[in-house]
Write a structure and sequence with these properties.
Blueprint (H helix, E strand, L loop, with lengths): L5 E6 L2 E4 L4 E4 L2 E2 L4 H12 L4 E2 L1 H8 L7 H15 L9 E4 L3 E4 L4 E5 L5 E5 L13 E2 L2 E2 L5 E5 L4 E5 L3 E9 L9 H10 L6 E2 L2 H10 L10 H10 L4 E10 L2 E10 L5 E9 L5 H15 L4 H6 L4 H4 L4 H17 L1 H14 L4 H13 L3 H13 L6 H16 L2 H14 L5 H14 L2 H14 L4 H13 L3 H13 L5 H13 L3 H14 L3 H14 L3 H17 L3 H18 L2 H14 L3 H13 L3 H14 L4 H18 L3 H8 L11 H6 L5 H12 L3 H12 L2 H4 L4 H16 L2 H14 L8 H11 L3
Parallel strand pairs: 14-15, 14-16
Antiparallel strand pairs: 1-2, 1-8, 2-3, 3-4, 5-7, 6-7, 8-9, 10-11, 12-13, 16-17, 17-18
Helix pairs in contact: 1-3, 3-17, 4-7, 4-10, 5-10, 10-11, 11-12, 12-13, 12-14, 13-14, 14-15, 15-16, 16-17, 16-18, 17-18, 18-19, 18-20, 19-20, 20-21, 20-22, 21-22, 22-23, 22-24, 23-24, 24-25, 24-26, 25-26, 26-27, 26-28, 27-28, 28-29, 28-31, 29-31, 31-32, 31-34, 32-34, 34-35
Length: 771
């Protein structure tokens, strides 16, 4: 019998019980992943000492080569759990270039078997080996933050952060409805567990590609084990289904990826075809128990498959096929299969949700909102994990309420610490709209730490770095994706913009050539070319590129995308003084779509063109249709109404209107993400209003904000025009030297511009009249 004392650590309101793998705050358990707890233990055991990053990584990941991002992610999550901030650093102090130090006083409590307590300083503590797994009532328990899985033949440890791969079921029934369906059902059930981490379909597809296997290869037990080894996973689950008389017999086997040892086997029977999903439920629940998940946790997160997905095996089969195709070939290829799933079972909530996501990926935001809204109405027919996805999607695609979306994502991440999606959504949409680009980058790194083959995660991180002005970092991130042989068409578009921001015309041409050769994203690269051309005043060439982009989008039946391209052109025509062209392009865009981003762009172009009545009606329509939308309320409407006030020669009113936009001034609204227009418009308009009010100093400050953030503005025309507006502000101040320099800066940028652009003609007159 082990008589060694039980060691506990206390600091502030917290207590750590290493043997049980628990972190307590005021006696209540705090949700924390094992690796994060291990980082905390290393720091606490060396309280007041500087612990280098290398020491931490060797202590926490002794047998695994990991990137520093894993440690940074763990420290980030640890600070969040402890309520620490970089400003306060009550517990964890970052020492740049050196490492971390635990700053709070630590008490070490040693309890012996008799219950006597000894308190000692932290340095007296010695590291003890993890507590052995405990068996009680034939069921295994969690100990020291790890899960254990055993059968009579052999035993293996499954740590709480070790990935699990689910293979296809071997179907010996002759009924094709079970092909792929049971794997999908088992995955849905296991994903309800906050403790398990399943290898994503995206990562499976990436590994198949590296192995030279076809994307639609069946995950046989042998192939699944090889993928399991390549992804450094711990366990592979493979199943089977067969007929035994009138019965269906299901089997489930757990094997160690490295040794191939069978760790456990389960069986279940179903009397009818319709009862197979229920039998699968029972097997999944027993597996969760056997790996040590507590009964209360299982009870909280254990919606039966028939309720969490569908009662129809045919609908589940279509959904399973769609998920595979989506990972292997993208949204366009998966769209018909997701449609098929909701046609077979119109009450299949998650199929509607994925259909909505697919429409969104393809730029059809109206249909995306319709499908997502239907999923939200059916959300009670989903598991807890899926409800989080549906709720977040509803706020992002339907209401646009990013404050609520943020709360949903944070709750999702806390409940399911191994879920990558909440970090993706925070990093890709919520935080950029707020202008919190540093936090967006941290969330993107967390998503990639959970799934390093999540291709969109690299794009999200690269944009967060671009927004911060870290162009080299953004390039390195895209290079990291390429090194993992991850690619997506939008990478070329972002590389094009990065080359533009570096004034690298050769780099821009390389991306155009690569897209034209590859055949994908041709409409996107044409649109980005039009923006870059317009930025330097080559408006005729920009118009030709815009027309090409719209035509290519319509050829691909992407009306929403064509509308965004048209409205982006309308905005620049209005900004540059071509009122008739702005009105024509805005009306063409509205004929294609009434999406909120299109409607905002059209209204803004019309307001610039002097059509205040039509612009005002569109603004009212936005307010009526999207009363909760964050971008609408804090970016679109303030910009529109301020522009309309300037049209009415009421600059002080415009300044007042723009006050409500201040918290989101430096953010990237949804229109800038989808159509490359709208970022920092409230800042630019405030500068215009200050100029109109003869507040030259204040106006100059606003235009300098625009010029200081090229990574956010990118190719938006206000980046070019802010130079001209700054010259006007200096001239109003009576500073002719700085005014001339600012005018020359604008003229240098537009040295090859079309000579008849109204703003250029006006600028030359102003420059000539300077004293």
């Amino acid at each position: 019998m082990d008589t060694a004392p039980k060691i506990l650590y206390e600091f502030g309101p917290f207590r750590i019980d290493p043997d049980q793998g628990l972190l307590l705050r005021d006696g209540c358990a705090v949700a924390v992943t094992p690796k994060v707890l291990e980082v905390l233990l290393v720091l606490v055991r060396r309280s007041r000492e500087v612990v280098s990053k290398d020491e931490l990584m060797r202590a926490v990941w002794p047998t695994t080569v990991v990137e520093e991002a894993n440690l940074s992610q763990s420290v980030f999550m640890l600070r969040k759990v402890l309520g620490d901030t970089r400003g306060e650093q009550r517990y964890i102090v970052t020492l740049p270039g050196r490492g971390y130090r635990f700053a709070a006083p630590v008490r070490v409590i040693a309890r012996d078997v008799a219950g006597d307590v000894t308190v000692a300083p932290a340095r007296a503590a010695r590291r003890r080996p993890p507590t052995a797994w405990l068996a009680a009532g034939g069921m295994l328990a969690l100990a020291a933050g790890a899960m254990y899985f055993q059968s009579g033949r052999s035993a293996s440890m499954l740590r709480a952060d070790d990935p699990v791969l689910v293979a296809d079921f071997v179907n010996a029934t002759g009924d094709p409805v079970f092909d792929g369906t049971l794997r999908q059902g088992l995955a849905v059930q296991l994903q309800q567990s906050p403790l398990l981490s399943l290898i994503s379909q995206d990562r499976i597809q990436q590994t198949l590609q590296l192995m030279g296997r076809p994307a639609d290869a069946s995950l046989t037990p042998e192939l699944a084990r090889e993928i399991c080894e390549r992804t450094d996973s711990a366990l592979v689950l493979d199943g089977s289904i067969a007929r035994l008389g009138s019965q269906y017999v299901l089997g489930l086997r757990a094997r160690d990826c490295r040794s191939g040892d069978v760790l456990d086997e389960e069986q279940a029977q179903a009397g009818r075809r319709e009862d197979v999903l229920q039998a699968l439920d029972e097997m999944a629940t027993r597996f969760r128990q056997r790996v040590g998940e507590s009964l209360p946790t299982i009870a909280r997160h254990n919606v039966p498959l028939a309720e969490a997905t569908t009662t129809s095996l045919d609908a589940l089969k279509a959904y399973s096929a769609a998920s595979r195709v989506h990972a292997a070939a993208g949204s366009a290829a998966a769209l018909p299969l997701f449609r098929r799933a909701v046609e077979v079972d119109p009450r299949f909530a998650m199929a509607h949700a994925m259909l909505g996501r697919t429409y969104g990926d393809l730029g059809d935001f109206v249909l995306a909102a319709q499908s997502t809204g239907q999923a939200w109405r059916l959300r009670e027919r989903a598991s807890d994990a899926e409800k989080f996805f549906i709720d977040a999607s509803y706020q992002l695609q339907v209401t646009g309420n990013l404050q609520v979306a943020q709360a949903v994502c944070e709750s999702w991440a806390n409940t399911y610490p191994r879920a990558m999606a909440p970090h993706e959504l925070l990093a890709g949409i919520v935080l950029p709209v707020q202008g919190n680009y540093r936090a967006a980058a941290e969330q993107a790194r967390m998503a990639l730490g959970l799934d390093p083959d999540f291709v969109i995660g690299y794009q999200i991180l690269a944009y967060a770095q671009q927004y911060q002005g870290d162009l080299a970092g953004a390039e390195r991130t895209l290079d990291s994706a390429a090194a993992r042989k991850l690619a997506m068409p939008d990478f070329a578009l972002q590389r094009y913009d990065l080359a533009f921001l570096r004034s690298d015309s050769d780099g821009m041409q390389r991306q155009v050539a690569a897209v034209l050769e590859g055949g994908e994203a041709q409409s996107g690269i044409a649109y980005h070319r039009s923006l870059a051309l317009a930025y330097v005043g080559k408006l005729q060439d920009a118009r030709a590129a815009s027309i090409q982009a719209e035509a290519l989008s319509l050829q691909s039946s992407q009306r929403e995308q064509a509308a965004l391209f048209a409205v982006g052109a309308a905005v620049r025509e209005g900004l540059y003084g071509h009122a008739a062209d702005a009105q024509r392009r805005a009306k063409a865009a509205l004929a294609l779509s009434d999406d909120r981003n299109v409607e905002f762009g059209a209204a803004f172009a019309l307001a610039l063109a002097g059509d205040s009545a039509r612009a005002g009606k569109l603004a009212d329509d936005l307010a009526s249709r999207f009363p909760q939308d964050t971008s609408v309320n804090f970016s679109y409407l303030p910009a529109l109404r301020a522009r309309l006030a300037l049209n009415d020669h009421a600059p002080e009113q415009a300044i007042g209107i723009l006050q409500m936009a201040a918290p989101y001034d430096l953010g990237a609204p949804r229109s800038s993400m989808h159509g490359s227009f709208g970022a920092l418009y409230t800042v630019y308009l405030r500068g215009e209003a200050q100029l109109a009010s003869r507040h030259a100093v204040e106006a100059a400050a606003e235009f300098r904000k625009v010029l200081a953030r090229p990574g956010v503005v990118a190719t938006d025309p206000i980046g070019a025009l802010a130079r001209l507006q700054l010259a006007r502000a200096y001239a109003m101040q009576g500073n002719a030297v700085r005014a001339r320099a600012a005018y020359r800066d604008f003229f240098l940028l537009w040295r090859n511009a079309d000579p008849d652009i109204p703003v250029l003609v006006q600028a030359r007159r102003e420059y000539a009249s300077l004293d």
